[in-house]
Amino acid sequence: MDKKIRVLLAKPGLDGHDRGIKVIAAAFRDAGFEVIYTGLRQTPQMIVQAAIEEDVDAIGVSILSGAHMTLFPAILDEMKAKNAGDIILFGGGIIPDDDKEELEKLGVAKVFTPGAPTEQAIEFLKKTIADKKSDEKIM
Amino acid sequence: MFSSKFLDKLKGRLADWNKTAEKFRQKKSMPRFFTVSGVDIDELYTPLNIEKYADDEHYWNEIGLPGEYPYTRGVHHTMYRTRLWTMRQFAGMGTPSQTNERFHYILKQGGTGLSTAFDLPTLMGYDSDHPRSLGEVGKCGVAVDTLADMEIIFDGIDLAEVSTSMTINSPASMLLAMYIAVAEKKGIPSEKLRGTLQNDILKEYIAQKEFIFPPRPSIRLITDMMEYCTKKVPQWNTISISGYHIREAGATAVQELAYTLADGFQYIESAIEAGQDVDEFAPRLSFFFNAHSDFFEEIAKYRAARRIYAKRMKNKYGAKNPKSWLLRFHTQTAGCSLTAQQPENNITRTAIQALSAVLGGTQSLHTNAMDETLALPSEKAALIALRTQQVIAYETGVANTVDPLAGSYFVEALTDKMEEEAEKIFQEIEERDGVLECIEQGYFQRELAKSAYAHQTELETNERVIVGVNKYVMDGEELEIPVLRIDRAVEQEQVEFTKKIRAERDQGRAEQAMARLREVARGEGNTFEAILECSRAYCSVGEMCDILREEWGEYSESASAMQVS
Amino acid sequence: MTVLERFYEGDIRALSRIISHIENGREGYRDVLSRLYDRVGSSLRLGITGPPGAGKSTLVNCLAHRLLKQGHKVGVVAVDPTSPFTGGALLGDRVRMSDFPTDGSFYFRSMATRGASGGLANATDNVTIAYDAFGFDVTLLETVGVGQVELDIVDSCDTVAVVVVPESGDSVQTMKAGLMEIADIFCVNKSDRPGAERIISELRQMLKMRKPPEDKWSIPVVRTVATSTDGVEELEEAINKHRAHMGESGFFEKRRRYQIRKKILTVLRNRFQNEFVDRLREQGDLDQAVDEILAKKTNPFEVGDNLYRRFSA
User: ipTM for the complex?
Assistant: First the structure.
C-alpha cells in the first residue's frame, strides 16, 4: 500500500479565525493527504502530543494574532523535548518578512504568508517528505 | 412604473437588439460573469427585471420612500444631507496608555467616534498574566485586565461627549461595566453614555470562534445586560449583530445577510421569551456588515437587509414602534479582500468598498488600512484610511442625494434577488430547528468552510482574478510600507501593572463582589449588576470569567463543524 | 534500539510508529503483529457507533475521562471516511478531546477508512492488538458514522453501544434490523430534546418484537446528554453489566472464539489479496488475458481457473 502523507493542522494561541486553516485542510485532503485537524486554542504541548500519537509527517499551524515569535519557538522546544524534532513544522499567517526569516533559521521548515496558493504548500510537503531519510528499524 | 404596453414594446425591441448583440458575443469566448459571491449576473437589466413594481401596492410594500417602511431606501428621510455617517476607526493596541494616545490623535484628526479593539486575552477572558496569554498581550488590540486599565484608556476624554464602540463579545458585560465605572468616577451619570457593544455571541460560535461559555448561559448574560441598560444606560446600543465576521470567515453576501439576520431574530425571540417588550429593546439593536469588493452586490445586500428586517419586525414580532423596524448598521470594509502583495492596492479596494457602504446607506463606517494583512495598521496607513472616507464624503458628491441608485433596473433586481435567496436560507435554518441547533450541529460552520474553499479554488484555477495575487504579479517585490510592531516589553509591563492593582485593591470588597457574582451565576438574579460591582472593586476580567467558567462550563466546537464537505 | 524494543519499554512514539507500520501494511507487518499478539492480555474493547451528529465523539470523550479517573489506561481509535475521489481524508475527531493526561495513560489515534466500507478501516482491528500489547486495558472504537449500519465493529468489540438522537427516528426505522444485530446497548443521546421520548419508546417497541436472543441479554436503552455528562454513568454501568452477563453466561468466550475464527480468515483473505490478486494486477498478466478474451479465444472463468491453479501450485 502507498505511504499516505499525514499532516496535523492546528491553531495555537487564542485566536479563533480558522478560515485559512480550514481551506488548507480541504486542499490537503483533495491532494490525497490524511489531515488531522485538532481545532482551536491548542497549546504547544497539545500539538506535539497529538503529532506524536498520530505519527504525522508534518505539523502545520496558522497564527494570525501576531504571537508567532512566541508560539513557533514554544512548539519547536516542545518537539525537541519530546524527541520529535524530525517532524516537519511549517506554518502560515500574518507574519512579517523579518520574522519569517528568523523563524526559518530557528527550525520552522517553511512559513507561508497570505495569498500563497495552497498548491505551494502541497508541493513543498510532498517534496520535503519524499526527501526525508530514516534508518529506523522496526524489529 | 411602466405600462404593460410599454413593456410589450420593450420585449420586441430587445429581441432585435439581441440579434446584434449576438454577433459581438460570437467574436469572443465569453468568461463567466458572476459576483464575488458566485451569483451569476445577466448581461443587461431592463424595466422587465422590475416589472413587478408596475403594481402600485408592490412598489409601496417593497421600496417606498426613505425614512418610511420598509426602509429599503434608507432609515432617515434626509440621510447624509443632514448628518454624515460616523467615521469610526477601530483602534487599540499595546498598553492602555498607547491606546489613549491613539484616541486623542483620532479625535484631533476629525474622527467622530471611538472604537476599541481589545487583545486576544481580553476577548477570551484571560488576564495578561495567565499562561495562555503568553505572547498575545497587546498584540491585536489593547489589554484590559481591571478598571485601572480603562481609567487610563479614557483619560482626558469626555465620556458624555464621545460615542464609544467596543468590539468585545464573550466578556462584553465586564467591559461595559468597567466603562460605566470609569464614568461614575468622572461623575458622569450612566444615562449620558453613548456607544455600542458588539456583544454578538452567536456569530462567535458561527464564525469568529471567540467563545467562552456555552450558548444558553451566554444568552443569559446578554439578556441581563439588555434589561439593565433599558433602565440605566438608555442611549447605549447593547448589541451589534454582526455579519462582518461571518463574511470574513468565508460567507457569500447572501449567507452574510441571512445568517446575520437570523442571529438577530434569535436575540429578539430570546428577549421576548425572557418577558421583555419588543418595542422596549428593539430600537437599541444595531447591525454590523461587511463591505466587500463586489460593488452592486453589496449595495443590494444593505437595501435587502433593511427591507427584510422591517417586514419581520412589523409582521412577525408585532413591533408597533417604527423605531423597532429600523435596521441601522455599521460597516467595515472587507479585511479578507486585502492582499499582502502590492499592499498599496488595498487603498483602492477599500475606497470602492467604502463607497458601496455609503451608497447602501450605512450609519457608520470603518475603513481598513492598507497594511492590515501584514500587521496592525501603522499611523500613516490608518490616517489614509480615514482620509478615504473624508474624500467620499466631501469630494465625490454621492452624499448629495438620498439612495441615488434606487430605480436602477440592476440594483432593484439584485435587491429582490438577495431577499429571495435569504428567505430560502431562513427556511433551511427553520427546518433544522433554529439557529442554536444549527450552531450545535455545525451547519453554519460547514457552509462557511465550503464557501471559503470554493472561493480559494476559483482563485487557484484563475476563474477569479485578484490583482497582484494571480494576475499582474510582480516578482521580487520589496515591501515599501513601514510595519508597526508591538514592543515585546508591552507584555511584561502590563503583567506587572495588573499584579500591582490586584495587590493594592480593597480585598474585602473584591472578594465579596466575586462571591456575589458566583451566587447569581449559580441561581437567579441579574448577572450584570453583580459584574458591575466586581468591576468597581477592581476585580479583573479573568477573575470574573473564571467564576463563570466554573459555574457554566466552557464551550467547545463539535466535531461535525470540522467537516468541509 | 529497534522501534519494537522501544515499544516494549513503553515509548509512545514507538507505539505510533508501529501503528503506522501496521496501517500502511509495510513489509513485515504481520511479523510485528504476531510478536505483539504474544503480549495481548484481556483489554476490553468498546465500540461506539451511530448516525452522523449523534454525539459519538462527545460520548467517547466523557467515557474516556471516567475510565481514566478509575485508574484505567485508555486507548481510542476514531475512524473517519477517506474520500473515494482523492484518497485524502479530513480527520476531525480530536477536536472534541480535551484535557487528557499526557503521561501515557491515554492515547488517541485517528484513522481514515482507506476504502473500507464497514465503518472501520481494514487495519483498525490490528491496531487494537497494538493497543492491548502496549498495556491499554480499555480500547474505545468510534466508527465512521455515515448513517448506515456499520457491521465491522461487531468483529472488533466486546460491547457495542449504538448511539442515536431524537432526530434519528427515520434512519432508525430503516436500519432497524441491522441495528438490532450489532447493538448490545442503545444510547439515546441529547435526550433532553423534544422527540426523545418518542424514539425511546420506538426502540423499546422494536426490542420487544425481536425474537429472544441466544445469549439472553436484554438490550437496555440508556439516555444521555453527553454535553453535560448526564447519563454517562448509567451508560458505563450498562457496559459493565453487559460484560458481567457475557462472562457469566459464557458468551464472552463464545464471542471471542467467533472473532478469532473470523480473524484467521481475514488474515488469509488479505494475504491472498496482497500476494496474489494485487500482484497480478501490477504484473500486467491481465492485459494479455483480456486481449485473448476479446478475441474469443478464452473467457474470464477459464482465465481465473488457470491463474488460481498457478497460485496454488
Answer: 0.94
